[in-house]
Amino acid sequence: MKRSLFYSLAILFFLFPAILLGLKSVTPIWRWGEPLSFNWTLRGWTSFWMDDRILHALWLSLLIALTVTLINLAVGMMAGKALSHSSFKGKSMLETLLLLPLFVPAMAAAIGLHITMIRLGLANHWTGVVIVHLVPTIPYTIKIMKAGYDRLGSDLIDQSRMLKAGPFRTFREIELPLLLPSVRSAVFLVVTISMSQYVLTAIIGGGSVITLPIIYYPFLQSVDDTVMAAFSIVFAILPVFAVLIIELISRFFITKNSFFNRGAV
Amino acid sequence: MKKTMAVLTGIAGLFLMGCSNHTEDTNAAQNIKDKSWEEILQEADGETVRLYMWGGDEGINQYIDEYVKPELQAEHNVTLDRIPLDTNEIIQKLETEKRAGQDDGTIDLIWMNGENFKRAKENDLLFGPFTDQIPSYQAFYDTESLDFQYDFGTETDGLEAPWGKVQFVFHYDASKIQEPPATLDELMKFAEENPGRFTYPAAGDFTGDAFIRHVLYGKASSIEQLLDSPFSEEVAETESEEVWAYLNDMTPHLWRSGATYPSSLTELDRLYSQGEVWMTMGYNEARAEDLVEKGIFPETTESFVLQQPGSIGNTHFLSIPDNSRAKEGAMAAIDFLLSPEAQLAKLEPAYWGENTPIDLALLDDEDKAAFEELDRGETVIDQQTLTDAFLPEIDAEYVPWLQEKWIDEVASQ
Amino acid sequence: MKWLHNNRSAVLLAPALLFLLLVLYSLTMSFVESIRGVDGWTFDYYQGLFQERRLYASFGYSLTITLISTLLSIAIGWGIVRSFHTFIENSPGKWLVWIPMLFPHFVWGYFVLLLLGQSGLISSALFGLGWIEERDQFPVFVQDRNGIGIITTYLWKEIPFVILMLLPVYAQLPKQYGEVIQVLGGSKRHIFKTIEWPWVKPVLLEVALILTAFIFTAYEVPALLGVQYPQMTAELAYDWFYGVSWDERSYAFALLFIAAAVMGFIALISFMILNRQRWLISKSQHSR
Lengths: 265, 413, 288
Fold this sequence. Notes:
The complex is a heterotrimer.
Chain A: H1 2-24, H2 43-50, H3 54-85, H4 91-99, H5 106-120, H6 126-134, H7 138-152, H8 155-162, H9 167-195, H10 199-205, H11 212-216, H12 225-253
Helix pairs in contact in A: 1-12, 2-12, 3-6, 3-7, 3-9, 3-12, 5-10, 6-10, 7-9, 8-9, 9-12
Chain B: H1 2-16, H2 23-34, H3 37-44, E1 48-53, H4 58-76, E2 79-84, H5 87-99, E3 109-112, H6 114-122, H7 135-140, H8 146-149, E4 150-151, E5 154-155, E6 161-167, E7 169-173, H9 184-193, H10 206-219, H11 223-228, H12 233-250, H13 265-273, E8 279-282, H14 287-293, E9 301-304, E10 311-319, H15 327-338, H16 340-347, H17 365-373, H18 383-389, E11 390-391, H19 398-411
Parallel strand pairs in B: 1-2, 1-3, 10-11
Antiparallel strand pairs in B: 3-10, 4-5, 6-10, 7-8, 7-9
Helix pairs in contact in B: 3-15, 4-15, 10-12, 12-19
Chain C: H1 2-34, E1 36-37, E2 40-41, H2 44-48, H3 53-88, H4 93-98, H5 105-116, H6 121-128, H7 148-171, H8 175-183, H9 188-217, H10 220-225, H11 233-241, H12 246-286
Antiparallel strand pairs in C: 1-2
Helix pairs in contact in C: 1-12, 3-7, 3-9, 5-7, 7-9, 8-9, 9-12, 11-12
């Protein structure tokens, strides 16, 4: 009962819009008062492939998003653990500062970041774009990971250490499997955010770094719904890909006979 | 870890660094000034030019990618990269690069006009003057024309080369409107008789601003006074009084009874495509052609201009940033983009359909005939009507002033 | 031992601190830009900001929409997680919930327009069914003065975000404790108070802060689905930021930085209270 209620709600509110957008990408304009027109057209998709840089842009977007994700997980897990399992002076201050990037919109932060990247010599290069994408993502990851470690508690880790398991083994067999729900959330969020960065990528990448949003965003201002819908669909599929890749990697990384199997489902 | 250390020292180094000086730059400008066109082309050979421009129109993008790119490569061995970015962000990027003292910028060519040019020029972001060195500009354009000497009242000073020319037109659905209005008063009458079927984009939108300027031209005591003198708040205040009266009189008859306005031209176009309103408008006399073709606008779409006050037209330009690394290449690209062949291709409705700033009288007979014979499509008004209605732009400072005032006097009432 | 422990957390925090350094430097540079006047440094813009009439008109409107969107998103998202978390976590349902997050806010706003506009699909369908004769009879849900369109879009986009942030909490919630309490005769309310709430509270707070800051400063959705007057503050900031005049750009900076500072201050106070509570809890646990 609960299950079917959830699924009917989820399909109505979450899946249906995506399907509608998909439909829109292959149909011409729907006018009010007229029955929906289903004269299938591939116009939206052909204009998508028209730009000859699109394949390269897809690949580069993936590369950047995955790099950003890996750095995020490393930084986030380390910081999350420290923030959760130890207390020190100025911890509240530090937590606030780490959340600060989320309070300043990209529009205002872009100028400062651009100046920084120019001085670091990383402007107009994809590595600079990676670093800039860390800004709106790392705060989330640290938060999610800290919350994860909070719930994990330090007891299990201490026990494992007492049983003479090395820190790496403890991490791999205890922490990671138990933290998997948090890792998933973080990965999904980071990939989605990284892939939707337009202003920051455009300013820092300076045109040398053509990612999908760089090609796609200008079309959002178009009255041509069909083209816009087609672009949006590709745009949405890409993060799903990236999340799947990360999921696969994490399955290899977590040993099959890990102590807790339930986390690895 | 090594990388981390490198970044760390890099960040530490930032605090110590000062601004670099710009003497080299002026030298570079001087250097190019002294070069002959042949020498410039030699330098341009093999360069990559990055053209930053608004990228939301497929036809325009195709024109650059499919026509200009290969042709330019063949003619001057210059590689053109088109980078889609909103013009205000381009200017923003240039400003930051200047602040950070970055001499080797990434932008080589910008497409812009009006407010953005003013902002770029005032902040010394542009390279030049260079237009006197562009052969096709000298040969085929009326260089004395005020349209090229002024961009929204700002002197161009040779920092911009004219790339295209557009005029403001209205589009309407002929299946619903028999006789389109020809004056502001008739437009008012139309709105009254057809409540909810007309509206205009809010001020702040490029097209909405232009519509309000038309009302200003129509209601001002003398258009000449507005055009000839620079912006003055006093003149603006007195001349605009009737503008707000007119627009407020119109408000109750507008779409949604004027409770709100479409925030952009895209929104107005969407309303028009749905038949919610019966008119749309825009700053390019040929733009409806493509939208009708795609079935977004109704097939019965036609265009008109107001006889009174007329139709404002403006020129848009190409500029080279001061910190461009490929200035010679950019100049070669401009020379090509301004040439009759490239302009003719731009006029094709299949690509962009936009009018040319070229002076047809300066072309040879064959080229001239090609321009005159090209069919721009059924929704485009004939050239004579457009020329008769043509009105130039006023000082760019009117634009933000009118925006502010519109919000105070109309939107918030 | 204690020293070693603290030292280890310093190592663990090093990359985060490095990141922080980068962010703070960048924000400082942005801030410096905001107080750079035509001739020299000036705080005039921060003062001048408060004399802008348009700002006052937009501020209350913005705040209302922001708070309604944030609170409703959290309430609904939390409700969904509480009722359904047992199978969201381990089922394809999880992927369904995340769909709206895959699309940019702008696209979702456009979708709401496509659906709920007077020329939208629902209005058109009602006409087809003969329930309405004119599209004017369809209520105004988007581009309306009450911001219904804006709030709808934000809810639709942010509820999945709330679910995403809360799901790990419930997935990792120590269920055994609940059983213990139940066996010992504790009430449901008791379970909630002692087990659920302490874990959920910090996350809810952070989500609330993030959403408030985001909705207050984002301009895309209100630009598409709002009205021309009153405008949300973020739209004003956007107009100012990209306007021609240097003064206005500085106003935009001043506005955004003040907003960020206020949010930062609220966050700091909240974290201090939370950390203090946690410290007390853990202290009482370890001295048993």
